[in-house]
Write a structure and sequence with these properties.
The complex is a heterodimer. Helices cover about 70% and strands about 0% of the residues of chain A. By secondary structure, chain A is mostly helical. Chain A has two domains: about 120 residues, no CATH class; about 55 residues, Arc Repressor Mutant, subunit A. In chain A, helix 2 crosses helix 3 and helix 5 packs across helix 8. Chain B is mostly helical. Chain B folds into three domains: about 50 residues, no CATH class; about 40 residues, no CATH class; about 130 residues, Tetratricopeptide repeat domain (Serine Threonine Protein Phosphatase 5, Tetratricopeptide repeat, Alpha Horseshoe). Helices cover about 65% and strands about 0% of the residues of chain B. The relative contact order of chain B is 0.07. The chains are: A mainly alpha, B mainly alpha. Chains A and B meet through helix 2, helix 3, helix 5 and helix 8 of A and helix 1, helix 3, helix 4 and helix 5 of B.
């Protein structure tokens, strides 16, 4: 996806618009692409709120991917956003126990293997994010506080002082809490 | 895996090692797949938690923008489902129309207009700041400046959260400015209370659904209104209109 040889599609501007929180571009995204997503979800046992949720989550995922993952688009934005939104809705439908979700004609002609792979990676990332958060919620209050404060971006010495701990002890506790968290995550992954 | 513990891995990921220690660790990392996987896991978990627990300002701002545009998507009168495409999208839209979904019809006037109250009772000015706000929202509502009335309504509700009268007209303003989903949560709250507006709220819940062409939910709400409620007549007329 990020190879230098790849041709960046002019629709990359939509991703840039998301990263820049450019309301004109975001409005254009809603006006041009939300109709198809909405129609698809409404036809597949969803309602308007589901459509709005899925579109919103899709756009946030794309923002994160573009911002931190350097997402470069080599296919039309419409095909890519539809692919991500459809996959999200199919997963959501499975969770709700809906068996049949229409498979609309695929955009195989415009979606490349790179985009398909990226869509899978984004989906896996989302699954992991949810798992990490649910396992984080299982930690004791002290551990949650230590991890949360340690990730706040403030200097660690300052965080240690605010918790009444030495810097060394904060690090030690944080690593113990992270070890427990990773253990929870692994045991959940091996059970599923 | 080499004999590294999570404290060491954490200090590496957090860039808290001195240069010598870092070099030694990176050497081990280059030779040890197990250690590499541990570092990757630690980093992934930490990055995802950081994003979830402390979303950056840019993401927050984007969420705000999306939330404001979300209403447009939810509003069936909005510009989101248009019959102008080709190919599968057109087929999808036509199929949607066949199962009774709402398609944008800019030429259509609001068929429920006559059922929606557009007058709040005028009040005499008494000087208190909430009264001034009430005057303001009354004037804006009565001039059908629904969008403009929302801010003052919200201020007023902050001061008087239990005022069902204000909440009721606020919810109508939301409905009339196209924010049907938000209006619904307000009407629902009023319906669950015991105010005089309880069954009026049910009427507007019904209207909200009818505006979205959800006839079944609309009917369900209209049928909740008992015969002795003041909104019963309107509810029956609406039921007749849609059947």
């Amino acid at each position: 996806m990020n190879s230098i040889s790849q041709t960046i599609h002019p629709d990359q501007r939509f991703l840039q618009g998301l990263v820049n929180n450019d309301t004109a571009v975001i409005r254009e995204i809603y006006q041009r692409f939300s109709g198809k997503i909405k129609a698809y979800i409404l036809q597949n046992n969803g309602n308007e709120e589901d459509a709005a949720d899925i579109l919103q989550e899709t756009l946030i995922d794309l923002f994160r991917q573009a911002k931190s993952g350097g997402l470069l688009l080599s296919c039309p934005f419409e095909a890519f956003i539809l692919l991500i939104a459809k996959r999200k809705w199919i997963n959501e439908s499975k969770k709700r126990g809906v068996r049949r979700v229409t498979n609309l004609p695929d955009e195989a002609s415009v979606i490349g293997e790179d985009e398909r792979l990226l869509a899978e990676q984004m989906e896996e990332k989302e699954r992991n994010r949810k798992l990490y958060l649910s396992m984080f919620a299982r930690l004791g209050e002290k551990c949650r506080e230590i991890i949360s404060r340690s990730l706040s971006g403030k200097p660690q010495e300052e965080i240690a002082a605010s918790l009444g701990l030495s810097y060394g002890y904060l690090r030690k506790k944080k690593s113990e809490c992270m070890a427990t968290l990773i253990q929870y995550i692994r045991s959940n992954q091996s059970n599923s | 895996m080499s004999a590294y513990d999570y404290d060491t891995i954490g200090r590496y990921v957090d860039e808290a090692m001195n240069p010598d220690e870092r070099r030694a660790f990176e050497l081990s990392l280059s030779q040890d797949e197990g250690l590499k996987k541990e570092v990757e896991m630690y980093r992934n978990v930490q990055d995802e938690l950081r994003m979830a627990l402390h979303p950056d300002k840019e993401e927050e701002l984007l969420r705000q923008t999306l939330a404001s545009m979300r209403e447009e998507l939810l509003d069936s009168r909005g510009r989101v489902v248009r019959l102008r495409g080709k190919g599968w999208w057109l087929a999808a839209a036509v199929a949607a129309a066949m199962v009774g979904l709402f398609l944008w019809q800019p030429w259509a006037t609001d068929p429920y207009r006559e059922f929606i109250s557009n007058k709040m009772a005028p009040i005499a000015e008494r000087g208190a700041s909430t009264d001034s706000l009430l005057q303001l929202v009354t004037a804006e509502f009565n001039h059908q400046k629904y969008d403009q009335s929302l801010g003052p309504f919200e201020k007023l509700l902050q001061k008087q959260p239990d005022n069902a009268y204000v909440r009721f007209y606020y919810a109508i303003s939301l409905l009339q400015s196209g924010q049907i989903v938000r209006s619904r949560s307000e009407f629902q709250e009023i319906f669950q209370g015991n105010s005089l507006f309880q069954f009026d709220a049910a009427l507007y819940m019904g209207i909200g659904y009818l505006k979205q062409k959800d006839l079944s939910s609309g009917r369900e709400w209209l049928r909740k209104i008992p015969a002795d409620a003041s909104s019963y007549g309107k509810a029956q007329a609406l039921l007749k209109k849609i059947d």
